[in-house]
Design a protein that fits this description.
- The complex is a heterotrimer.
- Chain A is mostly helical.
- Among the domains of chain A are: 89 residues, no CATH class; 35 residues, no CATH class.
- Chain A is built from 8 helices and no strands.
- The model of chain A has no long low-confidence stretch (mean pLDDT 85).
- Chain B is of the alpha/beta class.
- Chain B has 2 domains: 60 residues; 241 residues, Rossmann fold.
- Chain B has a 6-stranded parallel β-sheet, with helices on both faces.
- By secondary structure, chain C is an alpha+beta fold.
- Chain C has 5 domains: 197 residues, Immunoglobulins (Immunoglobulin-like); 111 residues, Sandwich (Immunoglobulin-like), CATH 2.60.40; 203 residues, no CATH class; 74 residues, no CATH class; 174 residues, Rossmann fold (3-Layer(aba) Sandwich).
- In chain C, 30% of the residues lie in helices and 31% in strands.
- Chain C is globular and about 120 Å long.
- Chain C starts with a helix and ends with a helix.
- The chains are: A mainly alpha, B alpha/beta, C alpha+beta.
Chain lengths: 207, 317, 940
């Protein structure tokens, strides 16, 4: 029973959603509205689970004096301070919470994001090797596109930006669409498997 | 360790430091790489330039973007405003995001510093922030009567009484709507303002979004577009070589690099300010980094080939 | 020992960080001036031309250095209690450039609803003893003791959900006993619908006319400290005469014996009550010749047709022959009967004939929109139109690219567009908005482009053979651009001059309302007819004892025979019987009076009243008669409400084509072939656009069924080996050998993403293997809802492997929702825990390379799988194996090797083959201009 009831819920709700695609009536539209309201309700409850997990993991680390447990103190302190500040003074513009957000969260996030440029450079250096014909084609295409996107490419010959455009619009788009087709089918098949109860690992364990 | 081997096992940190230098140096000491203008940018420039000095035509600039995308979009804001102020083109500014209203203020005040004769509500008018929920009523209402749809400017003054509105009634008096955003807001203008009233629409976008507008450019639904920093750099240059030199736009001249170089020599001092060159300086850094990565790839491959050859030699022995 | 030093370092670091933070914060706020001055110069003035429900506030903004972020506005009907009504946000850095700030308190604003605070609270932040501390309140609470009496001071509009009002209200009878002058006792009984505030959606307020209101402002700075309260200033609302109508035109059409008038509306329209058109005769005397009630709350019509007969009825001496002597003017009257004339001097009419009028729009049709939920009607007319959006020559003027657009409608749906320039003809089979011409003309000369259409056959008359649209264009040498010729040629001019106004009315009213104005190139309009959700009622009575609001009880049913334009019915049966009895009593009373009466005039008057009441009692709409026979109140209301909805949502339409100057012509009201005028939007139960999708789903489901059946029978299904999946076991083995943990990231997306589900399916296999080998597995999670599911999966895997003891709940943990913070967390784990094998399975965005590159630095074996096409290159370059797109979905099947799952995989392959075949057929057919196949498929 523990397994059958969830499976039934999945099947029924799944079929209802499939039906919604084909039925435009008011009943069907209202059903979707109603359902969306419920999903919004579930979210906040899940936050509690997440925060609980975070606290538990780091509390255990501190308790066990696991390696690097000092960082866990910093994590928990940040969690407590930010939450407290938000509860006490609110989260509008001008509050300490907003100040923390602007001066810690945003720059830290931006820093991580800008690391991408460095990683791309090093990944390019390490990985782009003319090992085979295919790899060589990829390499040449990459160089042309990179040149075509800045003025140097144009300075060499106007063909480079033109070829860049062609590479992006023709072979690149064709490959992307091919993958997208497979992905679409894969998604449909997976959804079907889940609805019919063929795939149930998401319920945990037993096949 | 042999050269080829050391090439293969090069510590990433060297790459990082070289890259950091390559980004920072051009920003501090601009190199001045040539900027080649492209058709979508030229189209927008000449479209705006076509109404220079006219009282009965204006452009609308929609700043629906937030500070997060300012590095890419703010140079566009400045370049277009500068173009309008220099060539006496009437501008309306509007934003459907509260953060956008602050960016409008900033951009207007920065450009106005260099144009003391330009006056608010006579040469330009800032509609300010209008709630997101009102975007459709405003977009559609402007087809009928701009003053009625927008009602008040950012200072709370009724539009119908402002001098700038004297000869401007609706979209018939709007040369182009320029939507500058990091989202697909431009599509709204196409769907509502263009489809219904035939007003021309152009966009300024972040580089990531730039590829998405190609289909709409091809069908002419957007009359022009500025894509990322590169688009901003091109527009900056067009303003410098034509508007700042008091010249009419010419595609042939814009594409003739010798002419462009000559034009650069004649531009007035106020065009050489850092704020008006931001995008081009940023493009210097971008170009250097692209070349650097290409160099890295080539170096990595040289190392790889050398190693392969040595292994082959070993094997032969 | 080592731990202790670490803690010390951490604590030191934290203290340093805190000091630094405080220092930074200190410097940021130090520049700010204290917020200790009140807002000055507050003025409250009446809004001109309004309905007496608006006041404008203006004040001087505080200095920029004060770093104000918002101005808060408080209002009250007495100076000793002011409620917060709204704020104006300000950018703290730029400040306010203008000298004055304005706030207009006009129109309906939110007053109270069930989510309002429970109790009346003083506003925070005011120093004790200051005047603000005494009088300022936060929002109006949902406490009836507070908001009840307040309602008497404002105009009130209550929005009540239908369901609550019609079926769940509580009836209460209010009786009022009045002793009249002649000592007779008059009892009035009023039935009202009692509702709790929770049953009402919300209540709105507006200022009332002729009352004094008090206002005060306070400013909030970046520190969130508030300024002292400004002076409390009062203002009185007055009902002004309405604003002038604009652009009044009068046209007299001799042959049609009618006059046509047209005007434009002012900005403020909500106070309009009536339009009056006046004729001034040769002596300057004024005669009212036409009136029309306003269509509030809808936009009214801005034109009128007045036949000569009807003018003569109001002005006996009217003689059309003297038309040039007469002048005309229009007045607008508000609800207080104040009237404003549009023109200072009346104007003479333009005397002409109907030949000046435009041709009416052809093929005007209204139809139900297919495939909707029953809330749309299609209105369309005319033949297709094409316009040019852009023309561009290439650099050497050998090629011209034409960008066009098409406006058509479902009657004449364009299949092909044929364009001709200078003898070169191009047919557009696929309408992709662009067509290229080879230039064999002198590009400096003006050119003509002629377009004709071929429409899809739908049983309608074919397009006239000579129907075409021509544009001209000329090369602009100065700007080197191609422009569409301006002004366009005659045909375009004719189209540009006129526009189309769509008017509609429903069965509840007799006034046509304006639905939409279409421009010269539009051909279709979808009229949205929303489902009615609420009833709107005015100010309720309220009772403090039972905490209920009492609303008047009626439901409008129909415009009945134009005799009762708004035929309404009482909500309760009891009320209905009471009303009927009252009427019968009145009739008996009148009959008695009739016998006594002697005067003839009096007798006819009484008889008329008797007839009227009798008629009202007996002549009822059919549905009302039927409903009133029902015993249950609820069943009766259901029937009445259904009738109400049908009538409120049935519309008839006509189109007026006008130039805005009195030259307009109407189409007749649209009548369907079977003779009905009112159209009701029908809800559909199947979306025919999705037939192809349904067929595809059925084929796919069928394939899956047969493949599973085949697999069960033991048929060997060949499946292409995928290296990434085969290596999963080895990768786990490697971690075991090295004695290091495995990292598994199930994507950054939520559970609703199918990629996440696929990732979790793989997690279940990986976790099981890891448990068998007794290797630790770490699963960092970004989504709250994924967390418990992942925990359950890993737990079950350990049980299945027979190692429940090794399951550690903390191995599956939440890090953060922030994208890049999550990445830094994962990277930290890789570096500290030195994970031997990393799996990335699911949905990834820009963070993919940041994780995998770190993983490759730590020397871990990495296997990734994602359907995010843009991230694939990053995974392929940095990971050892990558599952591309659908391979991610297939992985779980590969790992389980069950016939059921392998069957679906095989079905997927066949389906793909089918799609590829379809694509190839489509490509071939449309290459030879056979577009029917392509058109079967819906465009998303």
């Amino acid at each position: 029973m523990k397994r059958q009831i969830p499976m039934m819920i999945v099947l029924i709700l799944g079929l209802l959603f499939v039906a919604h695609v084909f039925i435009p009536s008011k009943l069907s539209a209202d059903y979707l509205d109603w359902f969306m309201k419920w999903t919004k309700v579930i979210g906040p409850f899940a936050i509690v689970l997440g925060v609980f997990s975070l606290v538990l993991v780091h509390y255990n680390k501190i308790k066990r004096k696991a390696p690097n447990w000092g960082y866990s103190i910093v994590t928990l302190a940040a969690l407590v301070i930010t939450t407290a500040v938000g509860f006490i003074w609110g989260i509008q513009e001008g509050t300490p919470y907003m100040w923390i957000f602007k001066n810690f969260n945003v720059p830290l996030g931006a820093t991580m994001f800008s690391l991408l440029a460095f990683y791309i450079a090093s990944a390019a250096y390490k990985a782009f090797r003319a090992r085979s014909i295919e790899a060589t084609v990829l390499l040449v295409a990459a160089i042309i596109v990179m040149l075509g996107r800045v003025s140097i490419g144009q300075a060499i010959t106007h063909w480079i930006p033109d070829i860049t455009e062609w590479i992006l619009n023709v072979p690149n788009l064709a490959a992307k669409r091919g993958i997208a087709l497979g992905v679409g089918l894969g998604m449909t098949a997976t959804s079907l498997k889940i609805m019919l109860g063929i795939e149930r690992s998401y319920l945990g364990g037993k096949d | 360790m042999k050269f080829s081997e050391s090439m293969q096992k090069l510590d990433r940190r060297y790459i990082y430091i070289v890259l950091a230098i390559a980004v920072i140096l051009p920003l501090v000491f601009p190199i001045g790489f040539k900027t080649y203008s492209t058709t979508p940018v030229e189209d927008l420039y000449r479209h705006i330039d076509a109404i220079a000095g006219r009282d009965d035509m204006a452009i609308i600039m929609d700043f629906t973007h937030d500070p997060g995308v300012m590095p890419e979009l703010y140079p566009m804001d400045l370049a277009i405003l500068r173009h309008c102020f220099e060539r006496n083109i009437k501008v309306f500014t509007i934003s459907f995001l509260p953060q956008g209203a602050a960016i409008i203020q900033l951009a207007l005040s920065e450009v106005k510093e260099d144009y003391p004769d330009i006056e608010a509500n006579i040469d330009y008018c800032n509609f300010g922030f209008k709630p997101w929920g009102l975007k459709l009523p405003i977009m559609l209402g402007m087809g009928d009567d701009i003053a009625k749809a927008v009602e008040t400017n950012s200072e709370g003054l009724k539009l119908e009484n402002l001098p700038i509105m004297q000869d401007i009634k609706n979209y018939d008096n709007i040369q182009v709507v320029v939507e500058i955003s990091g989202s697909s807001m431009g599509q709204f203008w196409v769907t509502y303002a263009r489809a219904k009233f035939g007003v021309d629409v152009a966009v300024g976008l972040t580089a990531v979004m730039a590829a998405d507008v190609y289909p709409l450019l091809q069908t002419g639904q957007f009359i022009g577009s500025l894509g990322g920093l590169k688009g901003a750099a091109e527009y900056e240059q067009l303003v410098d070589i034509f508007a700042m030199n008091g010249q009419e736009f010419s595609k042939k001249k814009a594409r003739n690099m010798k002419w462009v170089e000559q034009a650069y020599k004649n531009i007035p001092e106020k065009a050489r300010l850092y704020k008006y060159n931001k995008a081009r300086i940023g493009m210097d850094a971008q170009a250097i980094v692209h070349v650097l990565i290409i160099l890295f790839i080539i170096l990595g491959n040289i190392g790889y080939f050398l190693e392969q050859r040595e292994q082959k030699k070993k094997y032969m022995k | 020992m080592k731990g202790a030093t670490e803690v010390k370092i951490c604590i030191k670091f934290s203290i340093l960080l805190l000091t630094f933070t405080l220092l930074l914060a200190g410097t940021a706020f130090a520049k700010m001036q204290p917020n200790n001055e009140p807002v000055e110069g507050l003025r409250v003035e009446d809004v001109p031309h309004d309905d007496g429900g608006g006041l404008i506030l203006s004040w001087k903004p505080l200095a920029k250095e004060k770093r104000i972020i918002e101005y808060r506005i408080y209002r009250g009907h007495t100076p000793d209690s002011l409620f917060y009504i709204g704020k104006i946000p300000v950018d703290a850095k730029t400040g306010v450039a203008a000298d004055t700030m304005k706030y207009v308190d006009q129109g309906w604003t939110f007053f109270v609803d069930a989510t309002s605070p429970a109790k009346l609270r003083h506003e925070k932040g005011q120093k004790k003893g200051s005047k603000g501390a005494e009088v300022l309140y936060r929002a109006v609470p949902r406490d009836i003791k507070v908001y009840g009496p307040l309602m008497d001071e404002y105009r009130i509009l209550s929005v009540i959900p239908n369901n609550e009002y019609l079926y769940k209200s509580k009836m209460k009878i209010f009786t009022e006993v009045d002793t009249l002058e002649d000592a007779t006792v008059d009892t009035t009984t009023e039935f009202m619908a009692g509702m709790k505030l929770e049953q009402v959606k919300y209540i709105l307020t507006k200022l009332t006319t002729g009352k004094t209101y008090y206002y005060a402002i306070q400013a909030l700075n970046m520190n969130r400290s508030v300024s002292p309260l400004s002076e409390i200033v009062s203002g009185k609302t007055t009902d002004d005469p309405p604003e002038k109508l604009g652009n009044f035109y009068a046209v007299a059409l001799r042959d049609l014996e009618q006059m046509q008038f047209e005007w434009t509306l002012p900005v403020f329209t909500s106070d309009q009550q009536q339009f009056n058109i006046y004729l001034y005769d040769e002596y300057g005397d004024r005669h009212l010749i036409f009136t029309r009630q306003d269509a509030y709350p809808y936009t009214p019509q801005t034109n009128a047709i007045v036949p000569y007969d009807s003018i003569a009825a109001n002005f006996e001496a009217f003689n059309p022959a003297n038309m040039e002597w007469y002048t005309f003017n229009i007045g607008e009257m508000d609800r207080q009967d104040q009237e404003t004339l549009a023109l200072d001097e009346p104007i003479p009419a333009e005397i002409t004939t109907s030949s000046i009028l435009p041709e009416p729009p052809i093929h005007f049709t209204v139809k139900d929109e297919p495939n909707d939920k029953g809330d749309q009607l299609q209105v369309f007319f005319g033949y297709p139109f094409y316009g040019l959006s852009k023309l561009t020559y290439n650099n050497d003027f050998t090629k011209l690219t034409v960008n066009y657009f098409i406006n058509d409608n479902s009657m004449y749906e364009v299949d092909r567009l044929i364009l001709t320039i200078n003898g070169t003809t191009k047919t557009e089979y696929v309408l992709d908005y662009k067509v290229a011409f080879r230039v064999d003309w002198d590009y400096l000369k003006p050119m003509e482009i002629i377009g004709t259409f071929i429409c899809k056959k739908k049983g309608q008359e074919p397009l006239p053979e000579d129907y075409h649209i021509t544009h001209t264009f000329i090369f602009n040498t100065k700007q080197e651009m191609v422009l569409i010729d301006s002004p366009p040629q005659q045909q375009m001019e004719e189209m540009k001059k006129y526009y189309y106004q769509i008017y509609k009315t429903n069965r509840l009213s007799d006034v046509y309302r304006y639905a939409k104005e279409l421009s010269y190139f539009e051909r279709e309009y979808i009229d949205k007819i929303s489902y009615e959700e609420n009833q709107y009622r005015g100010r309720p009575k309220f009772s403090l004892e039972d905490k209920r609001l009492y609303y008047s009880t009626y439901l409008s049913i129909v415009n009945y025979k134009d005799k009762y334009p708004f035929y309404t019915q009482a909500l309760y049966l009891e009320q209905l019987r009471h009303q009927d009895n009252e009427l019968r009593d009145e009739i008996t009373k009148l009959k008695g009076e009739l016998e006594k009466a002697t005067d003839d005039e009096e007798r006819t008057e009484i008889q008329r009243n008797i007839d009227f009441y009798t008629d009202y009692l007996e002549d009822k709409p059919e549905v009302v008669q039927k409903a009133n026979q029902l015993k249950s109140n609820k069943a009766r209301m259901k029937m009445l409400y259904k009738a109400h909805c049908t009538n409120a949502r049935s519309f008839k339409y006509y189109i007026r084509k006008t130039d805005g100057k009195g030259h307009f012509i109407d189409t007749p009201v649209y009548t369907t072939p079977d003779g009905t005028q009112y159209l009701f939007p029908i809800q559909n139960w199947f979306n025919t656009n999705e037939i192809i999708t349904l067929v595809a789903v059925l084929i796919f489901a069928g394939l899956v069924y047969f493949m599973i059946k085949a697999a069960r029978k033991g048929k060997r299904l060949y499946i292409r080996p995928i290296a990434g999946i085969q290596e999963i076991d080895n990768a786990i083995g490697r971690a075991t050998e090295m004695g290091r943990p495995i990292l598994f990231v199930p994507g950054l997306s939520g559970i609703s993403d199918v990629a996440t589900l696929a990732g979790l399916a793989i997690l279940s296999r990986v976790a099981k293997k890891a448990a068998e080998y007794d290797t630790r597995i770490l699963v960092p999670v970004r989504d709250f809802i994924v967390l418990p599911i992942a925990q359950e999966i890993v737990k079950e895997a350990h049980y299945e492997a027979g190692r429940p003891d090794t399951y550690d709940k903390n191995s599956v943990f939440f890090i953060t929702q922030a994208q890049f913070a999550f990445v830094s967390g994962v990277n930290g784990i890789m570096i500290r825990e030195k994970t031997a094998t990393n799996f990335y399975m699911g949905m990834f965005w820009a963070e993919s390379l940041l994780m995998t590159e770190t993983g490759s630095m730590t020397g871990a074996i990495q296997i990734a799988g994602t359907d995010a096409v843009n991230q694939l290159p990053f995974f392929i370059t940095t990971c050892d194996y990558t599952l591309i797109g659908e391979e991610l979905y297939a992985a779980s099947a590969y790992l389980s090797k069950q016939p059921l799952i392998l069957g679906t995989l095989k079905a997927q392959d066949y389906m793909k083959l089918l799609i590829v075949i379809t694509v190839i057929i489509g490509t071939i057919l449309s290459s030879v201009h056979l577009t029917f196949f392509m058109n079967w498929f819906p465009v998303k």
